[in-house]
Amino acid sequence: MKAxxxxxxxxxxxISFIVFILFISCNHIKKINPELIEGNxxxxxxxxxxxxxxxxDEMYTYEPYSENIVxxxxxxxxxxxxxxxxxxxxxxxxxxxxxxxxxxxxxxxEFRKIELERLQNSQVGLDSYLLGKISRRxxxxxxxxxxxxxxxxxxx
Length: 156
Hints:
This protein is α+β, with helices and mostly antiparallel strands and 156 residues long. It folds into two domains: 1-30; 34-155, Lipocalin (Beta Barrel), CATH 2.40.128. The protein is 35% helix and 35% strand.
């Protein structure tokens, strides 16, 4: 009888331990290192080519064909990116959820909706123009050239 009680206690302890481990592993949310996101990224999808630049708490997006550069402030909580549109006349500066980061390494930044690749050629990077290293004209020409090249690579 005593041996049966000890066996039941051991089984309860083992089951409790297993449940605890499963609970911890299911609730584990990966934290993103914000320093890894900094830099120049590109999006190439179908006929779309966009450039992204992350620096500290700022995010810029650029679409070469419309020549629009859009500025956001952003922050990361756990694995989610929140952003706020930056505009001098905008009174509402609320941050809104942008997307969940699925994968981030030295070469890829994957959200649920889009996947970005880190630019290896800093001459074409959005930061080159934003920091005044190249003229707007040279930046536009370089980014359009890259967009055409990446679109051609996709069609192969």
